[in-house]
Amino acid sequence: MSAPAPLLEVADLATYFDSKRGVLKAVDGISFTLKRGEVMGLVGESGSGKSVTGFSVIGLIDPPGRIAAGSVKLDGEELVGKDAEALRTLRGRRVAMVFQDPMMTLNPVLSIGTQMRLVLRAHEDVSRADARRRSIEALARVGIPDAARRLDDFPHQFSGGMRQRVAIAIALLHRPALIIADEPTTALDVSIQAQILAEMRNLVRESGTAMIWISHDLATVSSIADSIAVMYAGRIVESGPAHEVLGAPRHPYTKGLLESIPGEAPPGSVLAQIPGAMPSLLALPAGCAFRARCTYAQDACAAMPALAASPQGHAVRCHFPLEGMR
Amino acid sequence: MSEPLLVLDGVTKRFARPLNTGERIASWIGAGPGPRVVRAVEQVSLTIAPHETLALVGESGCGKSTLGRVAAGIYAPDQGRVTLAGAPVMSTGRRPHKITTRVQTVFQDPFASLDPRMRVGTTIAEGPIAHNLVERADSTRYVASWLERVGLPADVATRFPHQFSGGQRQRIAIARALAMQPDLLICDEPVASLDVSIQAQVLNLLLELRRDLGLTCLFISHDLGVVRHVSDRVAIMYLGRVVELGTTAETFARPIHPYTRALLDSVPRLARDGARGREIKPIAGELPSPLAPPPGCHFNPRCVHAIDRCRSEAPELLPVAGRIAACHRAEELLATV
What we know:
The complex is a heterodimer. Chain A is an alpha/beta fold. Chain A has helices spanning 50-57, 84-90, 102-105, 112-123, 128-141, 147-150, 160-172, 190-207, 218-222, 242-247, 252-259, and strands at 8-19, 22-34, 39-43, 65-74, 77-78, 95-98, 178-182, 210-215, 227-232, 235-241, 307-309, 315-317.
């Protein structure tokens, strides 16, 4: 089986933030690839570096942050080191982003129609009428009823779920090859989350768009992702096909995360818990960053384990990986 | 059955949206629509038995937190009564206030619920000293014992909240509530703002304290996984009303009300075998505005089983197969589970 060229190739990416208290290594040498139409779940707790990874891919790292090393290739084209102008022609057109809070990304004083027209005209020469027609199509595609009328509404006139749909419609306007979705359903109610999940899944399937779905919620990720990468303290500790990572986790951290989800365990029982908390990124221990919380840790863990992959593409960064914990 | 500890009897809580200038002028000259009223909680009756945990479940705007605050003596109900072990939780009169110390609350956001300028020890000791649960001279030891109970070292007392992570702050908030020696602990989304690995730690702590101290809990959450794990009984709320009430095990296994069913179907479950595409069945439509809830059963515009009667007549909470549900078609639907 010859592998087609990947859409996105991230290699040894490192994003650091310079602070008064030292260099904060938010992302410290991560590598992954994404095929066309593939949905990758990027999972981790707060401070794991999952959002900064998304921002780095789309070139949204501003000082004091900097991409310290590594490469991000979209369709073979290197993005790291490109100037702001070149990145701007790419953002919104070939790569789009959907954020957690649509109220922060939509302009409160412009109507939705105006905002969508601006997005279209940023990359294409479209007439007013064409822009309107395409905006209505995009809104209808994400399930906004009565799209033609709602185009003249302002963001505050939409509910939280509808606002997130608008943000998704804007992201889809230029039919990007890649969407980065950063916790897009976290702020929404369960019933609305279910609607958006189902719609996003259909949209990327129909359009062949690849997606990085950033989330702390393994259950949500499991319902949309083809592959999963688990991040801890700036590094990928486990990655692979979703059924492998969730069904047979090999890193103790992944296993701990899965077991600590209530709803899996018998009601009222003591939940398996990961002791302690994520270490400060300014004071990471040498070697495996998880070792202080790990029940399997041994002396060897003071040296950084390499990310080793199985033939099925199931990779784990651990000296003592678990065997088939099904 | 023993006497219930907490009784909520026909509780209604409304909030009026203040009028803007134009509307005020309009109402002066008699042309305005009058104040717009949200019925956050409408005619809710619930009881909680001693040592029981009742969960209140629903989406944002369903009134679960408002009901929790009425039970906690933070809001006075507009109608109805709240009693704890037979005694009223709030005084009556023009300015009702809380008159019991036996109900305490743990709030969702430990960044907002702890005074940033007060040392942790002072925060925890303040209530017990004011209510003579402990002598001031003895308070350091008292605080240390509660900190230990929630898994924190005694020297935490001399520090400020900003020096702690979310999970540690929530432990401090739990210690503050428990130091008042409550009979009823109200937990309003206590783990919603915490990371998954920390969530499990705090849930385990709550379960352990509940068992050791014999606490009764009202547990408010939108997270059905958490609710299934911690509660004995569950009340499902929709737009200010309880639509279903039953034991947690039965309600999750055989939900009666169409809203309960839809809610359970909406929750993404962990598909560990990679059975992606396992159907999430979203509920159609959105929560209606609580300013103008639909007539009849509030859920009828989104309900696939709605009939004409549901659009005109609000269903009462009635017993169905050992539980209670507010649905005109409960009996029929139960047969289809």
